[in-house]
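Support case: user asked for a sample of complex input and structure output to validate their parser. Sending the pair below.
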Amino acid sequence: MGPLSRDAWAQRLGAFRASPSAFMAGPEGEDLGRDLLSDLRSEKLSEQTKVSLLALSMEYPAQLWPDASAAEVAATSLLDTLVLLPPRPSALRRPLLLAATTALAAGGALGPTSGASCRLLPLLLGLAAGSDLGRGFVPASEQRPLQATACECLRELESCKPGLLGGSLGLLRGLLGQEGPVQPLSLLLALALRNTLVLQSRVGAGLGGLLTDKVSPTGGGPWDWTLVEEGDGRLQPQAPSWPAAEEGEGERSLTAREHSPEEARELRAAVIQLLDTSYLLTPVAQAQLLWLLGWALRGLQGQPPALFKPQLVRLLGTAQLTLLHAMLALKAAFGEALFTAQDEALLLRRLTLAAQHPALPPPTHLFYLHCVLSFPENWPLGPEGEEAAPLLLGPQLCRGLLPSLLHDPMALLARLHLLCLLCAEEEEEEKGQLPSPRHYLEELLAGLRQRAALDGGPRALATLCFQASYLVACCLAGQPTVLTPLIHGLAQLYQARPMLAPHFVDLLDQVDSELREPLKVVLRQVVVSRPGRDEALCWHLQMLAKVADGDAQSATLNFLQAAAAHCTNWDLQQGLLRVCRALLRAGVRGGLVDLLQVLARQLEDPDGRDHARLYYILLAHLAAPKLGVALGPSLAAPALASSLVAENQGFVAALMVQEAPALVRLSLGSHRVKGPLPVLKLQPEALEPIYSLELRFRVEGQLYAPLEAVHVPCLCPGRPARPLLLPLQPRCPAPARLDVHALYTTSTGLTCHAHLPPLFVNFADLFLPFPQPPEGAGLGFFEELWDSCLPEGAESRVWCPLGPQGLEGLVSRHLEPFVVVAQPPTSYCVAIHLPPDSKLLLRLEAALADGVPVALRTDDWAVLPLAGDYLRGLAAAV
Amino acid sequence: MAQRAVWLISHEPGTPLCGTVRFSRRYPTVEKRARVFNGASYVPVPEDGPFLKALLFELRLLDDDKDFVESRDSCSRINKTSIYGLLIGGEELWPVVAFLKNDMIYACVPLVEQTLSPRPPLISVSGVSQGFEFLFGIQDFLYSGQKNDSELNTKLSQLPDLLLQACPFGTLLDANLQNSLDNTNFASVTQPQKQPAWKTGTYKGKPQVSISITEKVKSMQYDKQGIADTWQVVGTVTCKCDLEGIMPNVTISLSLPTNGSPLQDILVHPCVTSLDSAILTSSSIDAMDDSAFSGPYKFPFTPPLESFNLCFYTSQVPVPPILGFYQMKEEEVQLRITINLKLHESVKNNFEFCEAHIPFYNRGPITHLEYKTSFGQLEVFREKSLLIWIIGQKFPKSMEISLSGTVTFGAKSHEKQPFDPICTGETAYLKLHFRILDYTLTGCYADQHSVQVFASGKPKISAHRKLISSDYYIWNSKAPAPVTYGSLLL
């Protein structure tokens, strides 16, 4: 594609500027950077068009050349274009230098291995030094402007790679002393000096001869990439001299390294050289120089900051924003070493004066006022970082800085802050002939409220009034003489203009309880004392939803009852229900039940009726704490979700039973062998406090009758709980598995449901003894049972292995309650009742050392294998 | 100390976007530093579209403020400086320096050379004052001598080239953009050494020095017990020095007549080389006494090429030039007004013009007027609900004039009649507009013989003076009026 025409480029650049991201995503985006570079060499385009192309590349290099290698290629191409320019004056040289610098610095390509960097740096330094670059490279008429431009480019490179020009300090100093352009060289030298001092001190090195060595720019080059590397690419803040800005960056300070006398002398000479010619710089450049040198000298021993004094005397009379700001920076950096107490007072007076001088524009006033309240005092008393009135700023000095209704909102708020600070100090001040600031504050707030109350007035006036009230409440908390009239005034404002309800709700959300609670009471009184049917009903309901609580229930309910008849549309009904909800949460019950019932019948909108009914049901069924949780802010819903969603989510969380990991453990204790039924003994243990625990059991295979649930009011971890008894009603005498579910309430009020591990009921857990026969009749009783088993029953013989404890031990451990006849240690007759109505009879006789033969009979043949397994397992179960 | 980007946005209420970006410039090398300095708290400079929207919202310049919007209207969002945080895509871009002037919004984003979380105090950010100066510089350039839209467009189209000179890399080199323009135009002039950066060339021609003193007087008069009337003079001394040589030295002395009012709160141009400490400390903050320094006020300086404000001052003259009262009472359907104005005998009774504007806010159009005046003519602007009493060039011999009458209003319609939040009920004011040439209220003058010029050739020296009114209010004494703290000092 050939070069584009001027118009085509203008159109393309316009489209790009309108939205760079959209353009780059489009079909032309990919080629833009390449086309731009190639068309810079086109002979058909005017210089003006080419300058506009270069201007674009200076603004959007990251879009045109998105990575370091592309930036390197672009910078190379730009430098080539520069070299190829014919040796006559051209408007392109300056922008080409700027564009190449921008491409390298912004593209991250600047470095010792970059070819373009190694071409650009010597070129810039050569131009800055005004040396002859040969072949008419620079036409004489352009030499001076290009020299300045080269300095600017070098300064930008040094800003992005601190320490780069560390080796050129001597050269730059020399140039400044000769005929070089003062401003660009001064700023470049000051920046390089600052960066070098910071980096050298960090590695513990001195300046050495850096300030005096004059390296020839045509030689190997004075680029100090090593210093750049030592700086670790970390940029140096210009403003660390500010105490509050310095916190948290411990290793920042220039460790008070001592320079050799020679070094110190040279450094001092360089600084004086810079300061002496600073009047030749533009005011903004002078300010930069002061910031840089202030930072460079801070913490350096042997460099008295008094060097700055002559400049300060010269500049104190100006009201130039940058100059006064730079002076404050020096004040913050050097404190008493540069500003005596008298100097400090004078500076503060000048600042106070500038903050109100009619000849200065309002944004300047506001910034100066901020500076007054953040004034870097020699001996600050208050906490750092907070705006406060400096000690020297008495009421007399502030007089002209106090707010009036005629100020614009920002000025009013800024000055109001100062007034609040004065009021806070008033008690300590002597009551002079000045009018009381507190009284003035009250009048001012009244005026603001009056304006906010204007019918049809813009919202900004209302916002201002509430901002002022908030500011006062924050600054003067704990001063009832201020807060009481404020509360009273706000209530009147609401009365006058209920449509400000959202502002009131916002204010109540933002302020501390000290203002919030009394304000709520007063506002509630204002609302409920109304007839409840005026056109501002929606605002009243919004307000009431915020301020209604358990107090003054009957008045609130009366208001709502009266209002209900007028809530004819969905909005109003929702508003009404929101108030009900607030009351529910506050624990109001009595009259609310009636109201909700009425609403559930009366409201026109079905949604409204449903909600009323829901609230009614909740109120009727839930205890107060549970209700609070159910209606409280939902944790489940994200903060931005609509209130309806939040409400539903809240209900889900609070009213539905939540599946949860088990917070309770159950272990099976020894079973109890008393009474008509087998009873399991369960030991519960909680991991967190839980309440109203209900344990439900389900028997697999319906082997037993359904089990009753077990209730525990409260379980706490670490507090031993009483064992739980679970009676079993077997339908057949068999072991079974019990599924266990737990239902409980957490301390946050949520009801949870959890599956516990199953419990296993063993065969032996079902054993019950027969009624004890009379003394001496045991054997007869047993024989009778024994005989009754046959013929329907079954008989078997089993070898029961014995452990080291022998037969006696085995019986006493496992079978003791069931023994009917005992002839220790060799013979026992055991009768076991198996509910519902089976029996198991054992004769253990003629025990040997390692086992005993057991004769057994049962009237239920299904028991036989279970009994066999049981006996064989006894020895192992010891 | 640098700017990441700068914008000019015209505020166009009533259009869909309520504004248009007229100019923007980004500084990618500064942006790169911002990314390193700000670290995790870095928020990139957005494209023009999102920036425009967020800025207009924050400045409350979108037409829609019908509903309460928490992110704008919450009472805890308090801005006390012209420096904002803009919510863009869920992140907050801070600090954005911005202000509105003449329907143009000037905005820039200064580099903060540290992390933004927690936010450093504004006073520690060097780029903030530079940003202000940058924007003021652009504003001066756009509006100096500019009369109409096409001139504004021409100047806007010059901005890209000018910023290439004045702020090539985001670090401002000269806030005076006119200098950069001249620099571009006279690039071929070979500059000798030690040329000040604020002086782009040298003057060739007849030497002359022109000094003009403009005093503005403002006043708040209440005519009430317990509230003091206030007035203040604000002076501006403007110089244009056409002198040959690189660094000619000039000293101008401002003098006062024997009964003149001392100058206070003096602020000087940075080209002033030294100041007497009496000038530096004379301030309106202190109670006045006879020992106050009363001049002559000497200002030695090296002038720039262009016209510049050598100094500003304020002064407290013993009496206001015109003392008056305004009484307005609502009587059923009409307002009865009585106005009395008295020119002080010491004031030069020779006005370029003198008028009293009597606006009636928050009312309908004027339907009926009956009046009687002892002097001058009354003009009636019925639809604007405004009366203008044209007093003319001279007060009568008695120095005292009066106007009384009754005014009746029609039904209020919100579009046409002005709304004012202060002038509600019977709270009302009249505002005086006047100008007197070759006169200053303080008596301050620049003595031509005391002007010292250290340059070749004897310059022609011319001096001008004028007094103009500015915010000269007389409030209805029959109703509450907004007071300043100063008015309570009796």
